[in-house]
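> @MW can you paste both from yesterday?
MW: sure, first one:
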Amino acid sequence: MKADTHPDYHMIDVKMTDGTVFKTKTTWGKEGDQMALDIDPLAHPAWTGGNAKLMDTGGRVSKFKNKYAGLGF
């Protein structure tokens, strides 16, 4: 393999929405960084059966609902 063609592959901590942390290898960030997830399999309606609500982190959900409010969904 050619040198300096691949990004650094290292260990980081991933913090789930319930506060649990696990280690994984990735090219994201730097060695030892922590990635905090906003949505994960513990909180996303696709995995939980629709009981959880998504966080509207920029008004996108409300803009979508307002735009398509008259279509009868």
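MW: second:
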Amino acid sequence: MKQKIVFATNNAHKLEEVAAILGESYEVMSLREIGCEADIPETADTFAGNALQKAQYVKEHFGYDCFADDSGLEVDALDGAPGVFSARYSGGGSEENMTKLLHNLTGKSERGAQFRTVIALLIGSDTHLFEGIVRGTIIEERRGEGGFGYDPIFVPDGYDKTFAELGSEVKNRISHRAQAVEKLAIFLNETK
């Protein structure tokens, strides 16, 4: 029998990606599937804190073992900004966020950055954290049509194309989220 576990998201793409990595042993359920309609707050100042907030909300209100993630872009020359504010950096959408980021990097030669994901898992009475990081460089102009967020301006180390140009198959294999989910999957499959 499949073990049920909740992923604190309603993002269909993320659910599909995670379910594929976790394999046949787990039934991954979304917030919608357990009847959670709440807009769970993310008010912590770290990715781990936000992920824990979401997972704890589900565990406390619905009783399910649960995991949640938070992720974003950290730019070296901007002291780690936009960080936990990545999705709402400009107050607008992805285009506005990229415009603000590129503006804030004007004249800066240091363009190193990283995407970071932290997954918080609450299983039984235990809490576990899993992290994935992909280093890269912020380029000066957008390239590529795929992806979302900052993908058109982020070139991962070891590649000459942006995440947007690499396509979802390559990105999903090397991304920060893929790394964190892989660690989660190994842990879950070893402990069941």
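> thanks! The mean pLDDT is 92.
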